[in-house]
Design a protein that fits this description.
Blueprint lengths: L1 H7 L7 E3 L8 H10 L7 E3 L7 H10 L7 E3 L7 H10 L7 E3 L7 H12 L11 E3 L7 H10 L7 E3 L7 H11 L6 E3 L16
Parallel strand pairs: 1-2, 2-3, 3-4, 4-5, 5-6, 6-7
Helix pairs in contact: 1-2, 2-3, 3-4, 4-5, 5-6, 6-7
Length: 203
């Protein structure tokens, strides 16, 4: 199982760990991974289509400052605003530059926590979040307004907000600050009023 895999990783040269397509990976599984992360050389971790939620993500977030992780994809599970808030709290102290949180249960509250980190990003922060993929979640216009205000202080280059619940109001608020930001690529395909279904692909 996951615990046995995690126990065998310290001391190896493994730097990429992909654990995709397994709903049996629960919060306990992510906790096992989190406990070994500081003891490994892993800089990229993907766990797409899992059975975990906020508790598992809190474990990963707590391990980030002592880990080598730079890329983190926790896609298509049951992660909500509490999990995203935990990640946002750890970002100033870790090496993460790319986060994929698509297909979860993130709302405006979670987006606001990420925006608060971006807005307060200091020059001496270890983390410089460059790529943020949060497609197939449920941020609405209010979340985009807050995110837009944070872009000027951030170093984001890629932002994916596909299939959310965004209207022209939110897009206008976001784009108002893009010119003053470092953003090079934005994806807002497939937005409508009620984003309740999941989907595949990047983000």
């Amino acid at each position: 199982g996951v615990a046995e895999l995690a126990a065998g990783l310290p001391g190896t040269k493994v730097s990429k760990l992909w654990m995709n397509g397994n709903r049996r990976i629960t919060d306990d599984g992510l906790q096992s991974i989190a406990e070994m992360l500081p003891k490994t050389e892993i800089d990229e971790f993907w766990c797409i289509v899992g059975g975990y939620g906020d508790e598992g993500v809190r474990s990963i977030a707590a391990a980030l400052p002592e880990s080598s992780l730079e890329t983190l994809w926790l896609w298509s599970s049951a992660v909500g605003d509490a999990g995203v808030s935990a990640l946002a709290s750890s970002l100033p102290k870790c090496k993460i530059f790319e986060i994929g949180m698509g297909g979860n249960k993130v709302t405006d509250a979670g987006i606001t926590k990420i925006a608060e980190y971006l807005h307060g990003q200091a020059d001496d922060d270890v983390s410089k979040l460059v790529e943020l993929y949060i497609r197939w979640n449920s941020p609405c216009d209010k979340g985009l307004e807050v995110l837009g205000l944070a872009l000027c202080d951030a170093q984001l280059e890629k932002l994916n907000l596909e299939n959310a619940a965004i209207t022209d109001v939110g897009l206008a608020a976001l784009m108002e600050n893009v010119e003053k930001s470092t953003v090079k690529k934005i994806c807002v395909n497939g937005n409508w009023e009620d984003a309740t279904e999941g989907g595949g692909g990047e983000g």
